[in-house]
Specification:
This is DUF2971 domain-containing protein. It is a single chain. The protein has 233 residues and is α+β, with helices and mostly antiparallel strands. The protein has one domain. 26% of the residues lie in helices and 26% in strands. The termini are far apart. 25% of the residues are buried.
Protein backbone atom coordinates (compact mmCIF):
# COMPACT_ATOMS: atom_id res chain seq x y z
CA UNK A 1 0.00 0.00 0.00
CA UNK A 2 1.28 3.43 -0.94
CA UNK A 3 2.33 5.51 2.08
CA UNK A 4 2.14 9.29 1.82
CA UNK A 5 5.44 10.76 2.96
CA UNK A 6 5.35 14.60 3.04
CA UNK A 7 9.12 14.70 2.53
CA UNK A 8 8.87 12.86 -0.79
CA UNK A 9 7.75 15.05 -3.69
CA UNK A 10 5.49 14.11 -6.60
CA UNK A 11 3.82 16.03 -9.44
CA UNK A 12 0.71 17.67 -7.97
CA UNK A 13 -1.57 16.43 -10.76
CA UNK A 14 -2.49 12.75 -10.17
CA UNK A 15 -3.27 12.48 -13.90
CA UNK A 16 0.39 13.08 -14.79
CA UNK A 17 1.21 10.38 -17.36
CA UNK A 18 4.01 7.89 -16.67
CA UNK A 19 5.43 5.07 -18.79
CA UNK A 20 7.26 1.79 -18.29
CA UNK A 21 9.05 0.27 -21.30
CA UNK A 22 9.71 -3.47 -21.16
CA UNK A 23 10.01 -6.62 -23.26
CA UNK A 24 7.25 -9.16 -23.82
CA UNK A 25 8.56 -11.73 -21.33
CA UNK A 26 8.60 -9.21 -18.46
CA UNK A 27 5.16 -7.95 -19.47
CA UNK A 28 3.71 -11.49 -19.45
CA UNK A 29 5.33 -12.17 -16.08
CA UNK A 30 3.58 -9.06 -14.75
CA UNK A 31 0.18 -10.23 -16.03
CA UNK A 32 0.57 -13.87 -15.01
CA UNK A 33 1.88 -13.21 -11.51
CA UNK A 34 -0.02 -9.94 -11.00
CA UNK A 35 3.14 -8.80 -9.27
CA UNK A 36 5.47 -5.96 -10.20
CA UNK A 37 9.19 -6.74 -10.23
CA UNK A 38 11.41 -4.27 -8.40
CA UNK A 39 15.20 -4.25 -8.65
CA UNK A 40 17.43 -4.09 -5.59
CA UNK A 41 18.81 -0.57 -5.41
CA UNK A 42 22.49 -1.53 -5.40
CA UNK A 43 22.07 -3.77 -8.46
CA UNK A 44 21.38 -0.93 -10.89
CA UNK A 45 23.90 -0.11 -13.60
CA UNK A 46 24.48 3.30 -12.01
CA UNK A 47 26.94 2.63 -9.18
CA UNK A 48 25.88 5.87 -7.46
CA UNK A 49 22.36 4.51 -6.92
CA UNK A 50 21.24 5.13 -3.34
CA UNK A 51 24.49 6.87 -2.41
CA UNK A 52 25.17 10.46 -1.37
CA UNK A 53 26.69 13.41 -3.17
CA UNK A 54 30.21 14.46 -2.14
CA UNK A 55 29.17 17.40 0.11
CA UNK A 56 26.65 15.22 1.94
CA UNK A 57 29.09 12.33 2.30
CA UNK A 58 31.69 14.61 3.88
CA UNK A 59 29.15 15.78 6.43
CA UNK A 60 28.05 12.22 7.21
CA UNK A 61 31.66 11.13 7.72
CA UNK A 62 32.07 13.82 10.38
CA UNK A 63 28.94 12.63 12.16
CA UNK A 64 30.13 9.03 11.95
CA UNK A 65 33.53 9.60 13.60
CA UNK A 66 32.13 8.66 17.01
CA UNK A 67 29.34 6.50 15.62
CA UNK A 68 30.55 4.22 12.78
CA UNK A 69 27.22 2.39 12.73
CA UNK A 70 25.65 5.59 11.38
CA UNK A 71 27.56 5.30 8.10
CA UNK A 72 27.26 1.52 7.93
CA UNK A 73 23.50 1.78 8.25
CA UNK A 74 23.22 3.83 5.05
CA UNK A 75 25.52 1.42 3.20
CA UNK A 76 23.58 -1.70 4.18
CA UNK A 77 20.21 -0.02 3.70
CA UNK A 78 20.78 -0.10 -0.08
CA UNK A 79 20.55 -3.91 0.08
CA UNK A 80 17.08 -3.69 1.61
CA UNK A 81 15.50 -1.24 -0.83
CA UNK A 82 13.92 -2.20 -4.16
CA UNK A 83 12.88 0.18 -6.93
CA UNK A 84 10.52 0.21 -9.91
CA UNK A 85 11.29 3.02 -12.36
CA UNK A 86 8.72 4.94 -14.45
CA UNK A 87 9.20 7.72 -16.99
CA UNK A 88 7.19 10.98 -16.83
CA UNK A 89 6.11 12.09 -20.28
CA UNK A 90 2.89 13.25 -21.88
CA UNK A 91 3.95 11.39 -25.02
CA UNK A 92 5.86 8.27 -26.01
CA UNK A 93 9.62 8.61 -26.01
CA UNK A 94 11.65 7.33 -28.94
CA UNK A 95 14.73 7.34 -26.70
CA UNK A 96 13.03 5.15 -24.08
CA UNK A 97 12.04 2.60 -26.74
CA UNK A 98 15.69 2.47 -27.81
CA UNK A 99 17.12 2.16 -24.30
CA UNK A 100 14.70 -0.21 -22.57
CA UNK A 101 13.54 -2.57 -25.34
CA UNK A 102 16.17 -4.82 -26.92
CA UNK A 103 14.30 -5.51 -30.14
CA UNK A 104 11.05 -4.71 -31.95
CA UNK A 105 9.06 -6.93 -29.58
CA UNK A 106 8.83 -4.45 -26.74
CA UNK A 107 5.83 -2.86 -25.05
CA UNK A 108 5.11 0.33 -23.14
CA UNK A 109 2.71 0.51 -20.22
CA UNK A 110 0.98 3.87 -19.90
CA UNK A 111 -0.23 4.80 -16.43
CA UNK A 112 -0.57 7.88 -14.22
CA UNK A 113 0.74 8.96 -10.84
CA UNK A 114 -2.73 8.42 -9.35
CA UNK A 115 -2.98 4.93 -10.83
CA UNK A 116 0.41 3.95 -9.40
CA UNK A 117 -0.72 5.08 -5.96
CA UNK A 118 -3.95 3.09 -6.15
CA UNK A 119 -2.33 -0.01 -7.69
CA UNK A 120 -0.06 -0.81 -4.74
CA UNK A 121 -1.61 -3.47 -2.51
CA UNK A 122 -0.85 -3.94 1.21
CA UNK A 123 2.29 -5.97 1.96
CA UNK A 124 2.99 -7.03 5.54
CA UNK A 125 5.64 -4.80 7.15
CA UNK A 126 6.73 -3.55 3.70
CA UNK A 127 6.99 0.23 3.44
CA UNK A 128 6.19 1.57 -0.02
CA UNK A 129 6.63 5.09 -1.33
CA UNK A 130 6.37 6.88 -4.66
CA UNK A 131 8.63 9.83 -5.42
CA UNK A 132 10.00 11.94 -8.23
CA UNK A 133 13.75 11.84 -8.83
CA UNK A 134 15.82 15.03 -8.54
CA UNK A 135 18.87 15.44 -10.80
CA UNK A 136 21.87 17.23 -9.29
CA UNK A 137 25.62 17.76 -9.54
CA UNK A 138 27.05 15.12 -7.17
CA UNK A 139 30.30 17.03 -6.79
CA UNK A 140 28.70 20.28 -5.66
CA UNK A 141 25.11 19.83 -4.53
CA UNK A 142 23.80 18.59 -1.22
CA UNK A 143 21.43 15.66 -0.64
CA UNK A 144 19.47 15.94 2.63
CA UNK A 145 19.74 12.88 4.88
CA UNK A 146 17.00 13.64 7.38
CA UNK A 147 14.90 11.04 5.53
CA UNK A 148 16.40 7.63 4.77
CA UNK A 149 14.75 7.57 1.31
CA UNK A 150 16.33 10.76 0.00
CA UNK A 151 19.43 8.99 -1.39
CA UNK A 152 17.11 6.96 -3.65
CA UNK A 153 15.42 10.09 -5.00
CA UNK A 154 18.51 11.86 -6.30
CA UNK A 155 20.58 11.04 -9.38
CA UNK A 156 23.34 12.67 -11.36
CA UNK A 157 22.40 15.27 -13.97
CA UNK A 158 23.62 12.87 -16.68
CA UNK A 159 20.38 10.92 -16.14
CA UNK A 160 17.97 13.86 -16.54
CA UNK A 161 16.58 12.38 -19.75
CA UNK A 162 14.97 9.60 -17.66
CA UNK A 163 12.50 12.04 -15.99
CA UNK A 164 11.98 9.32 -13.43
CA UNK A 165 9.31 8.57 -10.89
CA UNK A 166 10.03 5.65 -8.58
CA UNK A 167 8.08 3.17 -6.57
CA UNK A 168 10.32 2.40 -3.59
CA UNK A 169 9.88 -0.62 -1.31
CA UNK A 170 11.78 -0.91 1.96
CA UNK A 171 12.13 -4.46 3.34
CA UNK A 172 14.02 -3.44 6.51
CA UNK A 173 11.16 -4.52 8.79
CA UNK A 174 10.63 -7.86 7.02
CA UNK A 175 12.50 -11.15 6.65
CA UNK A 176 12.48 -10.82 2.86
CA UNK A 177 15.79 -11.59 1.17
CA UNK A 178 15.85 -9.35 -1.89
CA UNK A 179 18.71 -10.96 -3.88
CA UNK A 180 18.37 -9.23 -7.29
CA UNK A 181 14.91 -7.90 -6.56
CA UNK A 182 11.43 -8.61 -5.25
CA UNK A 183 7.91 -8.85 -6.63
CA UNK A 184 5.13 -6.85 -5.02
CA UNK A 185 1.37 -7.34 -5.33
CA UNK A 186 -0.35 -4.84 -7.63
CA UNK A 187 -3.84 -4.29 -8.98
CA UNK A 188 -3.24 -4.70 -12.73
CA UNK A 189 -6.47 -2.92 -13.68
CA UNK A 190 -5.29 0.14 -11.76
CA UNK A 191 -1.64 -0.10 -12.76
CA UNK A 192 -2.18 -0.24 -16.53
CA UNK A 193 -4.20 2.39 -18.35
CA UNK A 194 -3.10 1.44 -21.88
CA UNK A 195 -0.51 -0.70 -23.62
CA UNK A 196 1.48 0.62 -26.57
CA UNK A 197 3.18 -1.81 -28.94
CA UNK A 198 6.70 -1.22 -30.28
CA UNK A 199 6.64 1.09 -33.33
CA UNK A 200 8.81 -1.31 -35.37
CA UNK A 201 6.83 -4.45 -34.57
CA UNK A 202 5.06 -6.46 -37.27
CA UNK A 203 1.33 -7.12 -37.48
CA UNK A 204 1.62 -10.74 -36.27
CA UNK A 205 3.24 -9.48 -33.08
CA UNK A 206 0.54 -6.89 -32.47
CA UNK A 207 -2.13 -9.59 -32.93
CA UNK A 208 -0.23 -11.92 -30.58
CA UNK A 209 -0.19 -9.31 -27.81
CA UNK A 210 -3.91 -8.61 -28.25
CA UNK A 211 -4.72 -12.36 -28.06
CA UNK A 212 -2.48 -12.98 -25.06
CA UNK A 213 -3.95 -10.11 -23.05
CA UNK A 214 -7.49 -11.24 -23.90
CA UNK A 215 -6.86 -14.92 -23.07
CA UNK A 216 -5.38 -13.94 -19.72
CA UNK A 217 -8.69 -12.24 -18.92
CA UNK A 218 -7.60 -8.61 -18.95
CA UNK A 219 -9.62 -5.84 -20.55
CA UNK A 220 -6.80 -3.45 -21.38
CA UNK A 221 -6.79 -0.94 -24.22
CA UNK A 222 -3.99 -1.74 -26.67
CA UNK A 223 -2.68 0.94 -29.00
CA UNK A 224 -0.20 0.95 -31.82
CA UNK A 225 2.68 3.32 -31.24
CA UNK A 226 2.10 6.95 -32.17
CA UNK A 227 5.55 6.81 -33.74
CA UNK A 228 4.09 4.41 -36.32
CA UNK A 229 1.62 6.95 -37.73
CA UNK A 230 1.27 7.14 -41.49
CA UNK A 231 3.30 9.78 -43.30
CA UNK A 232 1.02 12.42 -44.79
CA UNK A 233 2.38 13.48 -48.17
Amino acid sequence: MYINNPNIKLPEDPDTIVWKYLDLSKFLDLLLSQKLFMSRSDKFEDQYEGTFSEPTYEEIKKLAINNPDFLNYYKTHREKVAISSWHINEYESFAMWQIFTQNSEGLAIQSTIGRLQKALEPEKNLKQYIGQVNYIDYKKEYIPFDDMFFPFLFKRKSFQYEREVRIISDTSDTKININDGIKINVDISQLIDKIYIHPKSENWYKNLVIQLVSKLGFDIEIEKSDLESDILI
